[in-house]
Amino acid sequence: MPSEAPRHILSQLKFPDRYERLSSLLGSRVAELLIAPPDEVLLGLRSIAHSVDTRGEGFFLPLSGPTGTGKTTLANSLSAFLPEYFCQTFEHPESSTITFESLQATAIKGRELTSLDDHRILPINVDNREGAPPSERELAEIKRFLRSPKTGNKAIVVWPETSQSIAHQIGKDFQQIAGATIISLPFEAKGPPRNTWQDTAMHVLHLCNEITSLEELGINPKNYDPNKHSTLGEFLKKISIDFDKQAAELRASTQKPLHLLITFVSESIEAGALTHLTTPSKYGLLDANGLLNATKDSAIGKWWAARRALLTQSIIKLNARAFHLPPSTSMIVLRRFGPEDVVKKLNALTKKSKSKLPRADQSRVAEYVRRTDLGKYMSSSTATAYETRGRPPEEAKAAFAAMAKQGIWTVGKDKQLNGAMLEALKIFLASANIKISEAQHEKSIEGLPLIPDNSMKIGEQVFCIEYAWRSGEFLDSGNRSEAAQYCLTKLKNYALAFGWTAP
């Protein structure tokens, strides 16, 4: 099955401003964004619940409020705000007509998906009929349903409506055929207090993207005045529009989507120090806080500390990530594609070993690269965090150590090794059916005033891979500062080259 190259982080950033999109994106975690409505709203809902229990009859609730007030949020969150009375809300399927049968089917499905022992009230939300009030026949069907035993008599049908006049007419028409109700209809939806709006927006930003300090991209909800907006939805929409504009400007800053992939090649078989320098949920994406905390007293750390917002922006613009390459992979790559003298040295080492290094045919090289974090990222594996599968053969670690002692990557010698890595990546990506339109080693690329170790163009995206060949188990925790400094230095070089800052 063909794989796909990864998407740039800038194409994944989002700031939803409506409940439907938030719910689709976050699932059950959308509850983390909820703020209880005012007391009078909760009091009204409790009164409805008591009425359903005492009268043995369901309730029809026209819900009024301007766009962005939170009608859909309230209708879908009754179980979160009053869990002792209401179970999960179910959407009535989109249809041109509301019928007794359609309401019954929704209620039966809802009960099947909750629990037979759950005797709480079942909310049914009719969220696709704003501006199209129910006909007399539909109101009669709703009334019939709400009086049906075992289904409608333990349900509440919520009908959100933006137009206040239409909502009032719906309430009046229903009361004419069903009689008076315990609360006045329509029921007015009221969102959370204005003093909570900025925090809510900040929570949306972080929860939907799972990247720290994302407000440093230039769109900080704390800089928006809630008093200039009539509803929370309007407030969130303004931020959402500005956020999308800012993301578009950031994408344009590199001409083409550019991925900076810093790859540490050493004896380390685990990510080690990199787990403290990257964002756990974004598979290798560098974390500004982690980088600065690891090396705050270094010159490069201080340089970036004075440009804190730019650091976050540079990481996002470059989709900058850090990976590790274990010796089992680096050694098989060098045996297959390395310089002639390196291949001879490795062949000599394997002849001396009781348990030889694995053969270095192309299919095995591709398989070894596929297992690495770099390979998983390049092929859009489902992995979301660094992984380690078993331990590499001791022969690979020993071979790496022997090569290190002979200085095969000192004084510019690593350039040839980087060329070997490019050949291995080309073989791997071909095996994954990912088409490379251009692959270069130690050459400048169009639109980038730097010369990456490796560069590959896949579609409209450019992948720049910078290798750090290091002796020993470099990614041990004791080397966290050095690893951070290397990453920060690369970020500085790219930021300066693109003209994002001055030296």
> SS-based structural class?
alpha/beta
How many strands? 10
Helix content: 40-55%
Report how far apart the termini are: 47 Å
What is the chain-wise order of helices and strands? HHEHHEHEHEHEHHEHHHEHHHHHHEEEH
Q: How many domains?
A: 3
Task: Name the assembly state.
Answer: single chain
Mean pLDDT: 92
Low-confidence stretches: none
What's the helix count?
19
Give a verbal description of the structure:
The protein has 503 residues and is of the alpha/beta class. Helix content is 44%, strand content 10%. The chain has three domains: 36-188, Rossmann fold (3-Layer(aba) Sandwich), CATH 3.40.50; 193-252; 258-497, no CATH class. It contains 19 helices and ten strands. The strands form two sheets. The protein has a five-stranded parallel β-sheet, sandwiched between helices. It has a five-stranded mixed β-sheet with strand order 7-6-10-9-8, sandwiched between helices. Helix 6 (136-146) packs across helix 7 (164-178), helix 13 (327-337) packs across helix 18 and helix 15 (362-371) packs across helix 18. The longest helix is centred in the middle third of the chain and has 21 residues, at 232-252.
Provide key terms for this protein:
single chain, 503 residues, alpha/beta, Rossmann fold, 3 domains, five-stranded parallel sheet, five-stranded mixed sheet, 10% strand, P-loop_NTPase
